[in-house]
Amino acid sequence: MSHRHGVDAEYFADEYEMDDVEDDIEIDGESINREAGDVDSDVDEYDYSSSKAVDTTAAQARRGQDIQGIPWDSLSITRERYRQTRLEQYKNYENISHSGDRSGKDCKSTDKGYSFYEFRRNSRSVKSTILHFQLRNLVWATSKHDVYLMSQFSVTHWSSLTCTRSEVLNVSGHVAPSEKHPGSLLEGFTHTQVSTLAVKDNLLVAGGFQGELICKHLDRPGVSFCSRTTYDDNAITNAIEIYASPRYLVFLNCFIILITDIGAVFLIYLFLVFSGAIHFTASNNDCGIRNFDMEKFQLSKYFRFPWPVNHTSLSPDGKLLLIVGDNPDSMLVDSQNGKNIAPLSGHLDFSFASSWNPDGVTFATGNQDKTCRIWDMRNLSKSVAVLKGNLGAIRSIRYSSDGKYMAIAEPADFVHVYDVNSGYEKEQEIDFFGEISGISFSPDTESLFIGVWDRTYGSLLEYGRRHNYSYLDSMF
Q1: pTM of the prediction?
Q2: CB neighbours (10 Å) of residue 247?
Q3: Which letter does DSSP use for residue 81 in this model?
Q4: Which region holds residue 231: left if phi is over 0, alpha if psi is between -120 and 50, else beta?
Q5: Using CA atoms in the order 14, 374, 324, 394, what is the torsion angle rounded to 10 degrees?
Q6: What is the pLDDT of residues 227-245, one digit of tens each?
Q7: Helix %, strand %, coil % for the chain, to 5?
Q8: What would the pLDDT profile of 370-422 be if each residue is shown by its tens digit?
Q9: Distance between CA atoms of residues 335 and 314, nearest Å
Q10: Residue 250 pLDDT more than 70?
Q11: At a CB cut-off of 8 Å and minimum separation 6, what does 461 contact?
Q12: Class of the 8-243+251-469 domain?
């Protein structure tokens, strides 16, 4: 990924530039259009009002209110015209020139008229933020009501059930581990700039611009573990994936003899089932992938590749790692030794997103050429489907846990949800305004959360899965 030094504003580039549209459409003295030179992270420029009056509910949306609360009726431009202007003027960031223009020829035609997830609420009382324009994995749902996200220098928990937020971890000052483990940096870190985040299985891991890793168990006070992946100048942590190593059986060399009252004899063999330990994988700009065992609190594997690694995804059986980074080609490698198993060719620019379908057969990659490619393990010579975005790079990809839906996020304005069983031909297009900090399905697939970063309209969008209870029709 692009490596830039300087203040926060300099981490944003052409991807955010737009020409003025109707004098930036000012609302209450502020603007829903942002210039590249006007992007920063000053806390005092944010409205952290907790008033629920600024939130939008499903009932209000059904009555015609804009889901983001933008008062289009009082503006000098319609929503439709502003959308068209965004489509025409938004500048996609590319490392390889014109990759987005050249990637459209193989793209699948989709039917965008579907609604798999319906709008529930837009919560402007919680602000989702971004520090690096290419890294958009800062929103994680651990249940259909619980979401963790970055809000300035704070990792925040949001409850959509009670509409309340609470701070989980503040990295603006000094952060040091409260537990002692071999290899942990007891001195901790100061003023960490969080580039990426992951939350799963009661573990939160935040990665920083200088290779920092901060690990916190959500059921324990304090920070459990701190580490620095590298002291290399190109040290930024690009992505983190938390997973449980596969469960395994151990056969005990003993058995129980059971004699019934009719004289039958049964031999009952004994097995012990061990649940997998929690691990996480850190993808780094120094071309390395590091695997940490959080049961032992230590580095367990380290692989190095020819180019910076922007994202990795572990296959459901734990045997393969999908690697994407600063190269148009991606690769599948052996998760135990890092050996290259198969190259994946087709993208035209650098990739920043990847995800496995829970079926363990298909997986997806997202690229700055504005496409998401679907791959099948049974034939890796070419992708089986190419899905095109509207504005820019595919920065985040998520499959629902049942494998029925896949969601992909562009840098701004659009999240696309596909019906996997239709061959990705049925699509729901979620349309709004603002940069996207991350997307996340809840583990039970009932909710889909979208972080929106904007000075005035920054928020957390919540969608709920639609269900067709056809069996109820017979009751009426």
Answers
A1: 0.87
A2: 9
A3: H
A4: alpha
A5: 20
A6: 999 888 889 999 999 999 8
A7: 10, 45, 45
A8: 999 999 999 999 999 999 999 999 999 999 999 999 999 999 999 999 999 99
A9: 8
A10: no
A11: 67, 119, 121, 122, 123, 430, 432, 449, 450, 451, 452
A12: mainly beta
Q: Calculate the CA 98 to chain-centre distance.
A: 26
C-alpha to C-alpha distance for 71 and 278, rounded to whole angstroms: 47
Amino acid letter, 341: I
CA angle 436, 440, 446 (to 5 degrees): 130
Q: H-helix or E-strand containing 473? A: none
Which amino acid does the sequence have at 273? V
C-alpha 135, offset from chain centre: 9
Give 158's strand partners.
Answer: 147, 165
Q: Find the length of the chain.
A: 476
Helix H or strand E segment including 221: none
Helical (H) or strand (E) element with 83:
helix 79-89
Spatial distance between the Cα atoms of 149 and 449, rounded to a whole number of angstroms: 10
Sheet containing 203-208: give its strands across.
194-200, 203-208, 212-217, 225-228
How far, in Å, CA of 415 to CA of 413, rounded? 7
Burial 88-127 (b: 16+ CB within 10 A, else e): eebebbbbeeebbeebeeebbebeeebebbebbbbbbbbb
Burial environment of residue 352 by CB neighbours within 10 A (0 to 12, 13 to 18, 19 or more) = buried
Handedness of CA 426, 431, 435, 440 (dihedral sign): negative
